[in-house]
């Protein structure tokens, strides 16, 4: 087996190859003057482990080209971050179910698919190859342990993310809760833990994805006003659109961390170990 990766997943792909003690295939990427993409990868093995986050349209096209380039090899596709996965329903007539369209396109030519904390588990059913989702909850818990906080409170940003926060908290034996909004007036809303007092506590807000960070930044300010000792944020997929990372730091968060499913300077912990464990099974 060899490991190949697309351009936006070079670092994670290299880490996965190292964790599995497998050779990494070098791939050349370029664009033609008309914007069409080109790649040339090394000779595939009988089996290929293809690591590719589809963080934008270019990386999605690169992945489709890479799958075709590896034709004849048995491909295990690892999608650390799957773009278009958040639209899993048709809300208005004429809309595509984007997650289904992308999953079907990426299924052609692959024998197995592994995702990482996909936003909706139902998306897995759209792949036309066996698909499974793995969680980075243990890695996030290890990062939280490294903060050196005294009995941190693990908070989900809403009730829908409470199960993931509880999964992280279980790894460290910590208390967990979710944030809730209380409308105080027509214009004033209070955001606070649903049932646990944050005063004097070190707070870690966890989620699968941070996009713009707007709600989280507002919540962090209210938690600090409510007496929290410190507020941190951690997510699996750090999108940080529209200046989201800077917004969170400007809001006074003590730290903001994400994994390397989307590679950036905020990538503080890695998905490589959990991906390697899934491949070894």
From TrEMBL:
Organism of derivation: Methanogenium organophilum
Function statement: Involved in the biosynthesis of the central metabolite phospho-alpha-D-ribosyl-1-pyrophosphate (PRPP) via the transfer of pyrophosphoryl group from ATP to 1-hydroxyl of ribose-5-phosphate (Rib-5-P).
Residue numbers binding ATP: 34-36, 86-87
Record GO terms (molecular function): ATP binding; kinase activity; magnesium ion binding; ribose phosphate diphosphokinase activity
Protein name: Ribose-phosphate pyrophosphokinase
Chief site of localization: cytoplasm
Residues that, per the record, bind Mg(2+) 1: 119
Binding site for Mg(2+) 2: 158
Family, as annotated: Belongs to the ribose-phosphate pyrophosphokinase family. Class III (archaeal) subfamily.
Keywords on record: ATP-binding, Cytoplasm, Kinase, Magnesium, Metal-binding, Nucleotide biosynthesis, Nucleotide-binding, Transferase
Enzyme Commission number, as recorded: 2.7.6.1
Catalytic activity from the UniProt record: D-ribose 5-phosphate + ATP = 5-phospho-alpha-D-ribose 1-diphosphate + AMP + H(+)
Cofactor descriptive note: Binds 2 Mg(2+) ions per subunit.
Lineage, broadest ranks: Archaea, Methanobacteriati, Methanobacteriota, Stenosarchaea group, Methanomicrobia
Residues at the catalytic site: 181
Subcellular locations according to the entry: Cytoplasm
A GO-annotated cellular component: ribose phosphate diphosphokinase complex
Cofactor(s) required, per the database record: Mg(2+)
Source taxon at top rank: Archaea
The protein's annotated pathway: Metabolic intermediate biosynthesis; 5-phospho-alpha-D-ribose 1-diphosphate biosynthesis; 5-phospho-alpha-D-ribose 1-diphosphate from D-ribose 5-phosphate (route I): step 1/1
Domain Ribose-phosphate pyrophosphokinase N-terminal: 1-107
Alphabetized Pfam families for the sequence: Pribosyltran, Pribosyltran_N
Enzyme class (EC, first level): transferase
Domain Phosphoribosyltransferase: 148-237
GO BP terms, alphabetized: 5-phosphoribose 1-diphosphate biosynthetic process; purine nucleotide biosynthetic process
Record-listed D-ribose 5-phosphate binding positions: 183, 207, 211-215
């Amino acid at each position: 087996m060899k490991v190949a990766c697309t351009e936006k997943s070079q670092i994670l792909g290299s880490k996965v190859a190292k964790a599995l003690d497998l050779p990494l295939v070098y791939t050349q990427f370029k664009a033609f003057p008309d914007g069409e993409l080109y790649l040339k990868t090394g000779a595939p093995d009988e089996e290929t482990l293809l690591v590719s986050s589809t963080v934008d349209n270019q990386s999605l096209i690169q992945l489709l080209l890479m799958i075709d380039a590896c034709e004849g090899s048995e491909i295990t596709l690892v999608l650390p971050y799957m773009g278009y996965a958040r639209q899993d329903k048709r809300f208005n007539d004429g809309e595509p179910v984007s997650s289904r369209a992308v999953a079907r396109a990426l299924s052609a030519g692959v024998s197995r698919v592994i995702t990482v904390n996909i936003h909706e588990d139902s998306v897995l059913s759209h792949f036309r190859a066996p698909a499974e989702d793995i969680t980075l909850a243990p890695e996030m818990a290890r990062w939280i342990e490294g903060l050196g906080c005294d009995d941190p409170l693990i908070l989900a940003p809403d009730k829908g993310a409470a199960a993931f926060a509880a999964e992280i908290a279980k790894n460290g034996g910590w208390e967990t809760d979710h944030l809730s909004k209380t409308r105080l007036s027509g214009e004033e809303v209070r955001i606070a833990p649903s049932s646990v007092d944050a005063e004097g506590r070190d707070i870690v807000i966890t989620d699968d994805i941070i996009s713009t960070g707007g709600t989280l930044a507002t919540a962090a300010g209210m938690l600090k006003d409510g007496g929290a000792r410190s507020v941190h944020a951690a997510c699996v997929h750090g999108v940080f659109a529209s200046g989201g990372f800077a917004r969170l730091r400007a809001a006074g968060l003590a730290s903001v961390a994400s994994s390397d499913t989307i590679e950036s300077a905020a990538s503080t912990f890695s998905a490589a170990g959990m991906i390697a464990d899934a491949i070894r099974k």
